[in-house]
Amino acid sequence: MSTPSATAPSTQHAPASTGGAPRRFGSFGPVGLVLAGGISVQFGGALAVTLMPRAGALGVVTLRLLAAAVVLLLVCRPRLRGHSRTDWGTVVVFGITMGAMNGLFYEAVARIPLGPAVTLEVLGPLALSVLASRRAVNALWAGLALAGVFLLGGGGFSDLDPLGVAFALGAGAMWAAYIVFSARTGRRFPQADGLALAMAVAALLFLPLGIAEAGTRLLDPTTVALGSAVALLSSVLPYTLELLALRRLPAHTFAVLMSLEPAIAATAGFFILDQALSGTEAAAIALVIAASIGAVRTQVGRGKVPPLPAEGQ
After folding, report:
1. Would you state the pLDDT for residue 113?
2. CA 62, CA 215: separation in Å to the nearest integer?
3. Whole-prediction pTM value?
4. How far is residue 143 from each of residues 120, 126, 166, 176, 262, measured CA to CA in Å?
């Protein structure tokens, strides 16, 4: 595939060898990519929790980013020449955003429970969904998702550690920025080359913080193995799927779909961990899923799922 750009034709976003399927894949394929990425993140997050006593929050983030960067650089072998100054600026900002999002979130879950942390973090993409959309109906879907997210978080956060709440909200803001710069990077670099380069930027920036907190514990073979598994599940696979999805999905629809993260976690707990859902939690999941389906159907009903405009367009 050629490098996406602001002037690329719209047919570039659809596979050319599937006959009558491109339109259908363009409408529903990205949704499946986002959902698969969310499921992968939940398994990776569970594994990361078991790793924190070994390396600390910053150590886990460092291992996750380093392992993900190594894997992506080896697989993608991104080309370093032929990119403009704006291309490199986009990748660097994407890398900074990615590192900050991960660091703030793990600092949050070190202080407050995972469920409320994810719930607060999702507020960033939800805010983006309202700001990025030009249709009033998308504000309704975002409002429904927001109500579900608060229900899933227990309806209030007054008993939580204030610093943990601040970290989670900061992670949410970085998540919104990640959505924007992931889309821009995906249009300026072919395949997942931009993602690989941004991951390397994030890993290099975070390395001193991880060394300061975990020191030689980062070299323990078991810790390295677990950190690599976290990287694959929580970074390599979901980030790649999301980057591909953002080439076909508008930012506000993607942002509402991100509100499925708490719902996926609760559903996985019910089926895998035998954790019963309360009536409030079930209602929360229903609201979030309804909002996500409504957002997607709104875009599909317009006959086309427009991509997010590239920078400078």
Report:
1. 77
2. 11
3. 0.72
4. 15, 8, 22, 16, 16
